[in-house]
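ASSEMBLY PREDICTION REQUEST
Request ID: AP-0331
Submitted by: J.K., bench scientist
Number of chains: two
Total residues: 854
Priority: normal
Notes: Please return the full assembly, not individual chains.
Input sequences:
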Amino acid sequence: MNAKQQAVADRIADYLSENLRLPRENITYDIPLFGDGIGLDSVDSLEIIAGMDLLFGVSLIGAHDAVFRDIRTLSEYIVNNPDFKENIQ
Amino acid sequence: MNDKVVITGLGLICAIGGSADECFDNALAGKVGIKEVESVEHSACYAHIGGENNEFVTPDGEDRASALCVKAAKEAVADSGLDVSAAPSRVSVVIGSCVGGAVSIEKFYRDYVADPASAKGEDVLKMPISAIANNVALAFGAQGAVDNVANACAAGTMSISIAADLIRSGKADAVIAGGSDPMSSLAFSGFHALHALDSEPCRPFNKSKGIALGEGAGVLIVESYEHAKARGAKIYCEVLGSGVSSDAHHITAPSPDGEGMQAAMERSLANSGISAADVDYINAHGTGTPLNDSSELGAMLRVFGSEGKVSCSTTKSMVGHCLGAAGSVEAVMCVKAIERGMVPPTVGYTEEDIALMREKAGDFDFVPNKGKARGVEYVQSNNYAFGGNNASIIYAKEGAPRKLAQPNGERVFVTGFGIVSPLGNTAEQYAENVNSGASAARCGNCGDYISSVGKEDFDSVGIKLNFYRKLDKLSQMTCVSGKRALANAGIEVTDDNSKKIGIVAGTSDGPQTDIANFQKGIIEHGTQTGSAFLFPNTVYNAAPGYFSIAAGVKGYNVTLSNGAASGIAATAFASRVLRTTQNEAILAIGADEDSETVHMLYEKTGAIAAGMTPGDGAVTVVLERGSSADKRGAKKYAEVLGSGFAHCPSEFGRYGCADKLKEAISLALAESGVSAEDIGIVMTCSNGIKELSDAENAALADFAGAEKVNVRALCGECRAASGALGIAHAAMMLSGDIKGGRGDYALVLGASVGGSYNALVLKKA
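STATUS: Completed
Returned structure:
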């Protein structure tokens, strides 16, 4: 992970902690967000989609499930997206 | 026995008209009232339509939910010819709502975000659902039981069921019943966040991708047959039985198997003594979301078959989804269908759609596009809500054969408690702290009395992080209190008993903190940015909904909201439900939360300056039929004997009329068959506000010999939680678990701003 992606990954982790009321220490880059990991559900995924749009200008609508696997895959997708904007918020 | 309950008046306002006749005529013609929404900013949203009534302008200084409701109520009262002033104590008001004063909530937080000092206390008093029924009672001078039903999208149907129940239990002769909800940024943004809005007018059961929101109010005069007959009233139809169930599946989505929906439908038929084959018309919930429509269609096909004998439509395809008003808007449509022998259509079906529907549902008749004439003797109306709450009710032509389920004649006992309070998080801890004279936890800065639940509480009741992280404080306290109450009563929820355990919750202010969080978010960032995570928590029945999921209880599930007395109303009403339904145990819950937001709201209204100290908590009282408690060998703390309700029509925010508390007490004593001298314990309801203390002192003149206990002096004004705590505390005094008990009978008092007074009598078991 380069510095840019890492900054995005940390921002996503903070966002999930704040908006999905998860203990921040539980959210590592590689813990699966759904299923046996953190155990997020469909309503949480809507919150993630909305948050990534709000924070980085990137739409995740229609993105493949693999993108949502963990913070690493999410941040990778975001920094490589042509719509990606740093520091919208 | 007064079991014949009739409808004698109708009032309706929604997207397709301003009166019951206008709306029904337009519905028969298939007129669609769904168009671009004007009252909510939606430019950056993916959907832009809804069913508003733009002709109805909210009068200055009023809240839209109350104003819509009073308008429909005026039509209904005039239509029925009911003279409320002839016997005001015998006229009740029961109104359902989902978002309540959401338009005033938006106004308040717009002001607040701009400058906290500019947000007004008068707007705070327009925010809670509680205000609506109180404003209706004030408009007509009704002085019987007044309450609101806060079960989101099922509230409008439940309110009519509860109204019929008030009459059958002899507590009212007539009830102004219905539901009201406005178009609001709160609901629009929330359903948008859940991707549950359709960008085109919805076509339920067809190709619909979501709902179209609506707004409106439906009000019906529900009256005892004898009363209606004696005054020569026009009788539209009879209200028969109803069925209420809980999915215990998911906070927003229905259970895909439609089992809970089916249970509600089957119970309304059984409680009416009719069969599925008798039903001529179903007004379906049919919101247009793929999840609702597939679960509901499956359930209907299982109950009614696909032969096409019954006609089924969803008027939401024309008026939109009016949320807490939906069931009452649809009730008016159902009553009109019986009166006219005409059923309204489901619109938006093309020839191709109709062919596809035939593949899916055989000859099941969705009444496509235009209303039609047919014999209509029995009608079923169904609504389902967030929290997994399902409600079904039957209306029938007067004189059509029916056999209503009769009360089971059982006694009702208190068999357990779950107490989350500023004096401890279990019933045992609370009793120990009271007995030792310990003082309650308070907030250092603000002085409020504070409950707190944490990881150790959730661990001890077996609720995991994945679940509890989603909960607001109100839901957290409710889940812990409810689970501990089941454990305290020794009830294990199993497949065998889960449908016989229900919930009646009471809350004064509901989830005001997450409502504020959600609303402030969309004010700052736009309607399109509503939080899908927070939105489910903004409905008042979310807390008991989450609890039903955590505990797996699938029986009755109703949330009442009428100020601080709601905890007592919940217990009184739950006792009645135990005597008239399949439920063997009901968890009566009183819960209200405190937070910086809630403290600020009470500062704005002036209640804190007037002497009230807020507190919070959740108290669950397990009520159980005698036969069930005996079978389990359960410990009985007390018996619930009777209750009384009286209302002083007053401006919302005030208490008013000291004599009404006295009237509630007299009614409760009379129903219990005891006199004032028999009462050894009185749980008082004063909270530091002089107007209420004066009313209470005057009402208690006859109870000089009784031990007086005020849980608000111990734990602050925890509102509905204080009401339920008063009952738990009194029951534990009668059983000897809390010291200082006297005599065999306790009287528990409750008062709500807006002028509602409740009293409940407990007897040593």
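REVIEWER COMMENTS: Chain A is about 45% helix and 0% strand.
SIGN-OFF: pending second reviewer
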